[in-house]
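note to self — DONT lose this again. spent like an hour looking for the file last time. sequence + predicted structure for the chain T wanted, 688 res
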Amino acid sequence: MTDTLVLDPLIPLVLLYGVAGLALLVLILAVWRRLPGWWLRGLAGLALLAAIANPSIQQEDREPLTDIVILVVDESASQRISDRPAQNAAAVANIEAELARQPNTELRTVTLGDGEGDLGTTLMTVLSGALAEEPRARIAGIILVTDGRLHDIERAPGLPAPLHTLLTGQPDDWDRRLVVENAPAFAILGEEVNLTLRIEDQGAAPEATSVPLSISIDGETPVTVQVPVGEDIQLPVTLPHGGMNVLQFTIPDAEGELTNRNNAAVVQINGVRDRLRVLLVSGEPHPGERTWRNLLKSDSSVDLVHFTILRPPEKQDGVPVNELSLIAFPTRELFLEKIHDFDLIIFDRYRRRGILPSAYLDNIRSYVEQGGAVLISSGPEYGSAESIYRSPLGAILPGAPTARVFEEGFVPQITDLGARHPVTEGLDALSPNPDGEGPGWGRWFRLVDVLVPQDAMTVMSGLDDRPLLTLNRIGEGRVALIASDHSWLWDRGYEGGGPQLELLRRLAHWMMKEPELEEEALWVEPTGQTMRIIRRTLELETGDVTITHPDGTETVLTLEEVSPGRFETLWQAPEIGLYRLDDGEETAVIALGPAAPREFEQTIAGSDLLAPLVESTRGGIMPVSDGDIDIRTVREGRPAAGRGWIGITPRDAFRTADISINPLLPAWAFLLLASLLMIGAWLREGRR
């Protein structure tokens, strides 16, 4: 209970001041005239003024409020390594026990976990939120249990009480980290690019001069090299294929280091072909020849060499062979010496006429087996005695001619296998049929009958379901056979045309081994920490996918078929980092955020970031490894930390439960007193 004198004037305050001034003038006049009762007149004026001021006694019934201590516990990823979880628990138990002995004190505990993305430890953001929820006048102290590795120190709030830090970690902690200093997002196939890596030792690390570095591309068998510690490493890399190349770098776990979460890094580089080098060999002039040339020349990234046989040798007109062209065509250079400079060779209605010797064609076969690509666009000549199949190339072609050629209209169809194969998957959706039956593209009018080997893949069919487009893998290379020369009708728009350009693009990319056109593939499309896991296969079903987390734990997921040959599922990853996927046949590696998150850039506990903030409040930094600490009360402005103890500042906050106001004296009592004093002054002055 507290009493306070308050005034509630009966007249405006300005008038009260005026009355007080008038009374003061009367008093001065009385003193100047030396009236003996001047002091009684002054007291009468005061009584009158008091009556007008209406003084009252305000009584407050106050309830004391507890002091609040805010405890922020850092449980981010870096606080879950080594023995730090146990240190966290011990520090929290110590604080709770100490504050339980402090009278009139409450503890508010806030836990900081891992946030979305790669923001790191947002300790100050969490502290700001905790302070905003509590009355600042009641906060007696703030305690942080952390390793000191925060990433938002610039967001530190104003602190109304001493700030203390209980620092986790051990004095002999050390860690080894793999850092990718520089890596391009794109690289040209066949050209060497340099990546800059660095291996850093932090803390009380044992002396080491070099460590083994494992390098793996797209999950393949890694290559291991010795690299120095503490130096920038220039690593030359040549990408093996177009599209996304996933390069994984790993250093082995060292005994005693804090964590292996920063011992790996993943770099994703998009391989871009500088130029697609294509050799087009046309056996004779025909309506589709110009279409092939136009399609290939329309792409500025294609370097085209077109070899056309304009005049068949069997035409006996006596013209010497060396006069059939303006310059001699360099067949030997193209098909023997420079053949491996081409990415794709296309034979368009080519027949054996002795212009390309069997040795050249045999060299093309070897070129395919060693990783090259050949596309055959066949016409009637493919079923004749001069067929290119009846050459050394026949050993690798995916269709043996039966000598039958059908000359009637048909609409090309996508086979059941083709609906699952990436070359033709969804191709019919580009030209939907208004009638709803089959693809909505135009007819072709010629089909060469072929027998397809068992290991080849027929993805499109023609008349009476006979093979139209057949694909196969030969050694390291790939071959494709179009059993018709009427694909140009689609380009001309006949009966609505068809997706010839898209079909050719997909064919070329499949033959170039672009990852997005592989029949058997496992990959991930990340959105934040959500993974869309996709498995493409020619099989009717696929196995479960095992996901290995950054910390080594595993999750097994079942995929569902969403379209022919495509299985998917969505999965929310619990944290950022490097994940490995394996379904028993295909593997994939994906990094959500960096492979080593921001939390693991600096893993050695340190107080350098928090020290200025702690010192500004006269708080203290205490290593948890030193044992328990005491909590004492200190006056505001005094040092709040010492050897083995930290201090909190009592706030003496209260809540007013009730207020009562009573007049000091009734107004009539003041008037009576003023009257008596005036009468006394009159009587005294009357005796003169």
